[in-house]
Design brief:
Keywords: Golgi apparatus, Membrane, Protein transport, Transport
Distance between the termini: 164 Å
Subcellular location: Golgi apparatus membrane
Mean pLDDT: 77
InterPro entries: COG6, COG6_C, COG6_N
Number of strands: 0
Radius of gyration: 71 Å
Strand content: under 5%
Helix content: 55-70%
Shape: elongated
Family: Belongs to the COG6 family.
Largest sheet: none
Structural class: mainly alpha
Order of helices and strands: HHHHHHHHHHHHHHHHHHHHHHHHHHHHH
Pfam family, one: COG6_C
């Protein structure tokens, strides 16, 4: 069996040892098989072309191992070639491969016949190409024939087309001209369409404006807006250089007619709506009505006509509603009729005014919504400014005035009847203040010139007149009331107390009626007339009746009575700030009465102390005549007077005056009594100075004065009285400085010091009596601080 070229040959048997095998593979061996094998193994098959060549050979000589290869006939891929291939040719391309009987036999045969096989393959392939190209050439000849025929047809068609162009040139020109004319007509048509759409109304829009079947709504208002816009644009066109045109005049005429019909339709709509809405108690404004009123503002005469019907309807509705509220009440009897409360004048008048005020507020809200006015930012109850008057504000004020105009007559009649039927001045004043409050409110809401404001002003004047007549009658009746001669009390009489109580209630009502934004002078002047009418007669009555009772009862203290009455009036007025002026007038009278009472009390104190006659003699004696020679100031008489004065210092009258205890204001008691004690101290000082003068010729003047308390020591007397010693005055009691010092009042602590000073110079019995008087004085001071009225 032939050996394969890839199988190395072995020179020794396979049973030889390892040493022989190694020797056969040594490089020194010159075996050609080994050299060939080394060459094959060292060959690089990474080249792509080499691999492709080997792959081609493998495909050419591939055969199944150990079996006879079946003949494979390669069918040509092209159908044309397949149809023209000779069967004998295909048999030559079949390789009958036999099964290898010896390994490597096929490879040897392939190497031997490789060139021939390749040439046969190339020849067979070239033959196939030639056959295919022959067929292609035949087809190209046929194609060339067809192209020639087509070229001839095209030349003929081109010739016919040229002839046709020549013949249809005029027709194309005519068609182009018509096409241009058509485009021009289309442009004109679009322009005319746009012009008509902008400057004319469509049939539906004309129907919306003129037809009564189309209601007032968005469609109508859009048509009206378009009409207005057409007229504006038309005015712009007519204002050009060419001036007015026939089309412009026709457009203006047609739109003017349409607008007039539209405004007439709005007028009819508003009139009907106003009559319908005006009869309802709940006033609501629809957007359509608000827009219609806004449109009518461009036609003031039409708007006036529509609003006139509204005002007439509202007058009738408000009047009937007011009468129903007075007599029938609300729905189902609630709220109850106002006239059921006619027995209560304040509630009766207040309910009527409140109903009118509520009606005005509702009317104002309805009209503001109707004219589309927004909120002006004014707070509720604040003053409405009428200086910046707009057209809408004038319409609203006029309509409100007309709407409530018919309410003035029944309101005025009922309120005046209620006012004149009142007998109580307090109720009359409350009603007058209530009317004044609503008068100010209405003036701030609808203005001073409104009919309702004028009516309320008349009613308020009548109410105040009735009140002033009432209090004037009461004051005159007070002057005719006399005092009871058998009543020894010095307190204000019952008539004065009742009158003062009425005055207090009236002042309380006035204070509660203030709005808080008035000036101080307005507040004071607003009540000054009432004070003049009610206070002055009381003062006159107290003074005159006191003088009459003094004539019939000589021992009755008229000065204390008048002062108590005046202080009580001051106490009544002192609780109110707006009575300051009247309080000052009363204070002048009180000061005069205090001065008279102080003078009279000082004279009584000097008389009780036994120094009155001595003091008068010292003041009135002749300069050249010594006091020691005058009967009332002789040493014995002076000794008796000083002894009487010493005894008086030990009594309770030093710290407490029974007469002044009748004063209701204990502070006046203290003030007047201290002023009298100050005058007494200065009188004693004057007597001591006169006695010590050498010209009066008193022997042992110091002994005479020091025999009785206060031993000729004036400062000691000031301590006994509990007063601060004043600087030496050059004048006497008639200088008028006594009243000037009356403002330096002492506290209750001074009275305690007074009582302690008196206790130093008393015996045990007198000291105990002084202690009792001290406790009584403290109790009276406590009562004065807690209960006594305070003078402003």
């Amino acid at each position: 069996m032939a050996s394969s070229p890839l199988t190395p040959r072995s020179s020794t048997p396979t049973t030889h040892g390892q040493t022989d095998r190694k020797a056969s593979w040594t490089p020194q061996s010159r075996n050609p098989v080994s050299a060939r094998l080394y060459k094959v193994l060292s060959t690089n098959f990474d080249d792509e072309e080499t691999r492709q060549a080997l792959r081609t050979l493998s495909d050419l000589y591939a055969t199944p191992k150990g079996k006879e290869a079946q003949p494979v006939i390669e069918e040509p891929e092209d159908e044309f070639i397949q149809e023209n291939v000779n069967p004998s040719h295909t048999a030559a391309g079949v390789a009958a491969l036999l099964v290898e009987t010896v390994p490597g036999e096929s490879a040897a045969r392939a190497r031997k016949n490789l060139r021939r096989d390749m040439e046969n393959q190339l020849a067979e392939g070239s033959k196939k190409f030639l056959e295919a190209l022959g067929e292609v050439d035949l087809k190209l000849l046929q194609l060339q024939t067809h192209v020639g025929a087509m070229r001839a047809s095209c030349d003929e068609a081109e010739t016919q087309l040229a002839l046709t162009n020549e013949s249809s040139k005029l027709l194309l020109e005519r068609a182009g001209t018509l096409r241009d004319q058509r485009q021009e007509v289309e442009d004109k048509k679009s322009i005319i369409t746009l012009f008509l759409a902008r400057f004319t109304l469509s049939e539906s829009e004309v129907e919306a404006i003129t037809s009564r079947d189309v209601p007032i709504g968005q469609r109508f208002f859009e048509a009206m807006d378009k009409t207005e816009r057409i007229r504006e644009d038309c005015r712009v066109l007519m204002s050009g250089e060419d001036g007015s045109t026939k089309a412009g005049l026709e457009i203006m005429a047609s739109t003017s007619a349409n607008l007039e019909q539209g405004y007439e339709k709005i007028l009819r709509y508003c009139s009907n709506e106003f009559r319908r809405v005006g009869r309802d108690s709940q006033l609501e404004v629809s957007p359509g009505m608000r827009e219609a009123v806004l449109r009518l503002r461009k036609r003031p005469e039409l708007l006036t006509e529509a609003l006139t019907s509204l005002s007439e309807t509202r007058q009738t509705t408000l009047l009937s509603s007011f009468i129903a509220a007075l007599t029938r009440g609300g729905p189902s009897g609630y709220p109850r009729p106002i006239e059921l409360h006619a027995h209560d004048p304040m509630r009766y008048v207040g309910d009527m005014l409140a109903w009118v005020h509520q009606a005005i507020a509702a009317e104002r809200e309805f009209l503001e919504s109707l004219f589309g006015l927004k909120n002006d930012g004014r707070m509720v109850g604040s003053i409405r400014r009428f200086d910046a008057k707009g057209e809408e504000e004038e319409w609203i004020r006029e309509l409100m005035d007309l709407a409530v105009g018919k309410l003035c007559v029944p309101l005025k009649m009922r309120v005046q009847q209620t006012i004149r039927s009142q007998e109580s001045s307090i109720v009359s004043y409350k009603i007058a203040n209530l009317l004044q409050f609503y008068l100010m409110t209405m003036r701030r809401t609808i203005g001073e010139e409104a009919l309702l404001s004028t009516t309320l002003k008349e009613i308020t004047d009548v109410a105040y007149k009735v009140f002033y007549d009432s209090i004037e009658t009461q004051s005159q009746a007070l002057s005719r009331i006399g005092l009871d001669d058998d009543d020894p009390s010095l307190t204000p009489p019952l008539a004065v107390l009742d009158h003062a109580q009425i005055l207090r209630e009236v002042m309380t009502v006035y204070q509660s009626s203030l709005l808080g934004d008035e000036r101080e002078d307005e507040i004071n002047s607003g009540f000054h007339q009432v004070l003049d009418i009610m206070v002055d007669p009381v003062v006159t009555m107290c003074v005159s009746n006191g003088e009459q009772k003094k004539k019939s009862r000589a021992r009755w203290d008229e000065a204390v009575f008048v002062l108590n009455c005046l202080c009580y009036l001051q106490d009544v007025l002192g609780a109110f700030d707006f009575t300051v002026k009247k309080q000052s007038e009363l204070q002048v009278i009180v000061d005069q009465r205090i001065a008279l009472l102080t003078e009279e009390h000082s004279t009584n104190v000097l008389r009780d102390a036994g120094l009155l006659q001595v003091a008068e003699t010292c003041k009135n004696h002749k300069i050249d005549e010594p006091l020691s020679r005058i009967p009332s100031t002789q040493p014995a008489d002076l000794q008796r007077a000083l002894h009487h004065f010493s005894i008086w210092l030990s009594g309770l009258e030093v710290v407490h005056s029974p007469r002044l205890a009748q004063l209701t204001v204990q502070r006046l008691h203290t003030k007047i009594h201290q002023d009298a004690l100050k005058r007494l101290a200065r009188t004693y000082q004057m007597i001591c100075e006169e006695v010590k003068k050498p010209k009066n010729r008193y022997e042992a003047a110091s002994t005479l004065l020091g025999s009785e308390r206060p031993f000729g020591q004036v400062h000691l007397l000031w301590q006994v009285f509990g007063l601060e010693e004043e600087e030496e005055n050059e004048g006497d009691d008639d200088d008028g400085d006594d009243e000037d010092e009356s403002g330096q009042d002492d506290d209750s602590d001074d009275e305690d010091e007074d009582e302690q000073s008196v206790g130093k110079y008393k015996g045990k019995d007198e000291a105990s009596a002084s202690d009792g008087s001290e406790s009584e004085e403290e109790e009276s001071d406590d009562a004065d601080d807690s209960d006594g009225p305070q003078r402003p």
